[in-house]
Amino acid sequence: MMLDEIRSRLQADIPGCQVELVVNGSPSAQNSLLIDRQHGLAAARLLREGLQMDFCSNVTAVDWPDREQKDKVKTKQIVDGVEKEIEQTIKTTVPGYLEVVYHLFSMANKDGPVVIRMRTANRTGDVALPSLTPVWRSAEFQEREAFDLYGIVFDGHPDLRRILMWEGFTDHPMRKDYVPPPDDDLEILRER
Amino acid sequence: MTQVAVPGAEQDNIMEISMGPQHPSTHGVFRMDVRLDGERVLRLKPVFGYLHRNHEKIAEAASYLAAIPYTDRLDYLCSMTNNWGYALAVEKLAGIAVPERAEYIRVIVSELTRLQNHAGMVGFLLQDMGASGTPLMYAFRERERVLDLFESLSGARMMCNYMRFGGVRVDCSAEWLSEAAKLVAGFDGFLDEFEQLLTGNEILMARTQGVGLLPRELAINAGITGPGLRASGVNYDLRKVDRYGVYERFQFRVPLGEHGDVFDRYMMRVLEMRESLRILEQALRDIPSGPIMDPKARLRGLRPKVGEAYARIESPKGELGFYLISDGSPNPYRYRVRPPSLINLTVLEDMCLGQNIADVVVILGSIDIVMGEVDR
């Protein structure tokens, strides 16, 4: 099934659902659908029940930190009475976010992948996303892993605990700005 | 100790046991928090992370080529299939073609990997049931022959580091192919002997039939893949569904179970070994001559265009997937392994509830996990 069809189906059946096509420039040509987080759970239910996406294979997170974007803008100014074109560089900070990616397949129709993504509002305060574990059990451990390593809070997850790092560990090591402790501190961390 | 009201059971019988992380049945460092009523399992929570080394972070700091030896260490029994999954993802991401001979060699080494993994798994399963030594020794005798072949091909028995994106690292000689053909010709005899001793064995049947049932709908919903899924009767084998590599050229069947119990999962392994032998016979007969690497493939300093790719293969444990995001730099921006062993454990509690504690060991053995892949 084409992503455009899925997109229009999601928009038609779920009122207010915002779906954006994310184009993938690599030769794999696996495009994806960016779904707004308020309607993520409803969209997942529709994908599973209405569109036979019965198998959620891969769930993972990606960290996109704040980045600086440089735009070159040409403006016309009058310098010493002569009109000149001057190039200016404008720096803007694009706010970062955390993203989860789900790779869905259909065992019934033997097709896929349909890739869906959801994004948090930012990387620090508002990091909640709806859990899709109630729709696909296969997301249970993988969402726990995204919580553990990236710090995404999945609302509605039945058992959201750390899975790979130890209890009492406070950081999220897969984030791009994670600074690992020096080796000799590791033992102290474990003892705490 | 917490008290749980269980109808008809003495409160004193409720026990909480921490099985592992050094329990011999877990084949690695894996722990299960089990709550028991006498011998019956009331709750079971798996605990992971003892072997966690953040494989993904290491690979994100390394070049595309440098990640290949790390993939060997995921499922350390099946380094060849791990290499293939990763190579396939990079090939999709960067649009690299693979020569035909290399595709055949990949099929041959991967099916040999499946043989030795399943043989080892069946041996360990019987070991866990109390058949100490003999079945495992028989299985390991055959596994040893496969590892000898890997050693003469790649220089290493287990950490093969053999495949590259765009092909394979070294070519195999005509002698190597004839040695492989000899092994394949003799393997059916081993399976016959093994099955004669075990498949109809009364103790094995009593311990495995009707134990650890996994219903079809739950198996699909929980993302179970590989022989565990097919034992529950779902016809989903990526070698048939995705037809990656040159698998569409070979005639083979996909064995399916009926009940989804431990016995079916045991039989899946035995039958899949037989089908792997059929694939191997055809691949060894038809392998063409030619180059083994795409001449245009750049191993060092590969910088794929900005984009992402997800590739998956049918590893002996299930669906092994790799998800890569490139930002145009020489190392992957995001590198993710979809570990079949971890996701197949999702239903461990469902399969164990109401069973005896001794069956937990057998059920866990029938899932076939490797901690190197679960914890990454």
Assembly level: heterodimer
Beta-strand content estimate of chain B: 5-15%
The number of helical segments of chain A is: 4
Query: How is the biggest beta sheet of chain A arranged?
Result: 5 strands, mixed
Number of strands of chain A: 9
Placed side by side, the strands forming the largest sheet of chain A appear as 1-2-7-6-3
Helix coverage percent of residues of chain A?
10-25%
On the 0 to 100 scale, the average pLDDT of chain A is 85
The helical percent of chain B reads: 40-55%
Counting DSSP E segments of at least 2 residues, the number of strands of chain B comes to 8
Q: Nearest-angstrom radius of gyration of chain A?
A: 22 Å
For the termini of chain A, the CA-CA separation is 52 Å
Shape of chain A: flat
Based on secondary structure, the structural category of chain B is alpha+beta
> How many helical elements of chain B?
15
Regions of chain A with pLDDT < 50 over 5+ consecutive residues?
A: none
Secondary-structure element string of chain B: EEEHHHHHEEHHHHHHEEEHHHH
Please state the structural category of chain A: alpha/beta
Task: Give the helices and strands, then pairings.
The complex is a heterodimer of chains A (192) and B (376).
Chain A: H1 3-13, E1 19-22, E2 32-35, H2 40-49, E3 55-64, E4 67-79, E5 82-94, E6 97-106, E7 111-119, E8 128-130, H3 139-150, E9 153-155, H4 183-191
Parallel strand pairs in A: 2-7, 8-9
Antiparallel strand pairs in A: 1-2, 3-6, 4-5, 6-7
Chain B: E1 14-19, E2 31-37, E3 40-47, H1 55-60, H2 68-72, H3 79-94, H4 100-129, H5 134-154, E4 163-164, E5 167-168, H6 174-198, H7 202-208, H8 216-221, H9 227-231, H10 238-241, H11 262-286, E6 307-315, E7 318-326, E8 334-338, H12 340-344, H13 348-352, H14 357-367, H15 371-375
Antiparallel strand pairs in B: 1-2, 2-3, 4-5, 6-7, 7-8
